[in-house]
Amino acid sequence: MLRAKEILDAALELEPREREQIANDLWGSLEEGHDQASVDKAWDDELARRAKELDEGRAEIVEWGDVKAQIAKRLGER
Asked: What domain range includes position 29?
């Protein structure tokens, strides 16, 4: 049986569209067995946690344009 590293190495040699399909399929396999109600509850819990952090001053809102600029800068540094 192939080890995860061997599978990853082989997958990284594929064309981008093939890698995307594999990533989507793998992601979908992780979602199986989760009913929509449990997913919705998890999102509600996450939103409540984030709102609480904002209210308590433990987090800050960052504008999307600033986030995109930070990502572009980081990618350019690679």
From this structure: 4-76
pTM of the model: 0.47
47: its two tokens: 């939103």
| Polymer length of the chain | 78
Judge whether 22 and 14 are in contact, CB under 8 Å: yes
What is the residue-level pLDDT of the chain in tens, covering all 78 positions?
Answer: 779 999 999 999 999 999 999 998 988 888 666 677 888 899 999 999 999 999 999 999 999 999 999 999 999 886
Report the number of distinct structural domains present in the chain.
1
One-character DSSP codes across 15-61: -HHHHHHHHHHHHHHHHTT--HHHHHHHHHHHHHHHHHHHHTTS---
Instruction: Quote the tokens at residue 61.
Output: 């809102």
Nearest to 3 by CA among 18, 11, 17: 11
